[in-house]
Specification:
Blueprint: E1 11-18, E2 22-28, E3 34-40, H1 62-75, H2 84-87, H3 95-105, H4 123-136, E4 143-147, H5 152-163, E5 168-169, H6 172-177, H7 181-184, E6 187-191, H8 192-197, H9 199-206
Parallel strand pairs: 4-6, 5-6
Antiparallel strand pairs: 1-2, 2-3
Helix pairs in contact: 3-4, 4-5
Length: 209
């Protein structure tokens, strides 16, 4: 608006009316400083509106706004659903698995202990629930699973089919082809015997964070 300040146009911040003949105007002068001035009707003819604006604009991409809002809602979903990984996975966990993951493992942060149980007790299920829950909460971005060679495909299938987690198997041939494989893939499964035998793989694993 022109006419309020001798140095040039100003930006109106707020207008408060006092009756019908006087308005208290808050504006920013050309240098960016905020000022307040009382205007009466007799000065109306000296004012000129250069450009109109509004405090809120609704010209943004609605689809993008919905996408961002939904992503933020999902990011906070664990605050409202304490068993979010269970409800977003294809499995029906047993009570002792729920207790192990949500009663013992998740509350212990940082986590420093060994999960050990009898064969067939569901250690893979518990590990998958734990990994997925931490990824949903944003606490884990990269994960390495080390297992015997005959179980690599089983771990890969279980993580993908039950939890929607795509673990990439890193073999010696793949590492020779792509030395930065551990950095390229955030979710990795590797054979124990290869880590023992291949110094190059061991060196890469030592920097895996």
């Amino acid at each position: 608006m022109k006419g309020l300040h001798p140095d040039g146009p100003v930006t109106i911040v707020d207008v408060t009316w006092h009756g019908s003949a006087c308005a208290e105007v808050t504006y920013k002068d050309p240098t960016g400083n905020a000022q307040i001035e009382l205007l009466f009707r007799d000065r109306e003819a000296t004012l000129e509106l250069i450009a109109s604006g509004q405090s809120w604009s609704f010209e943004a991409d609605g689809g993008l706004l919905r996408l961002v809002s939904e992503a933020y809602r999902i990011h906070l979903a664990h605050l409202f659903d304490p068993l979010l990984a269970v409800h977003t996975s294809i499995l029906d966990p047993l009570p002792h698995q729920i207790t192990a993951v949500y009663g013992e493992m998740l509350p212990r942060q940082p986590l420093r202990f060994l999960l050990a149980d009898d064969p067939g007790a569901g250690k893979t299920i518990m590990a998958g629930l734990f990994i997925k829950e931490l990824r949903i909460r944003g606490d884990v971005h990269r994960c390495l699973i080390v297992c015997p060679g005959n179980l690599v495909e089983q771990w890969q299938d279980e993580m993908r089919d039950r939890f929607g987690l795509d673990f990439e198997p890193v073999t010696r041939a793949r590492l020779e082809e792509s030395p930065d494989a551990f950095r390229r893939y955030p979710l990795v499964v590797c054979r124990l015997d290869q880590l023992r035998a291949c110094e190059k793989i061991y060196a890469e694993c030592s920097h895996f964070d």
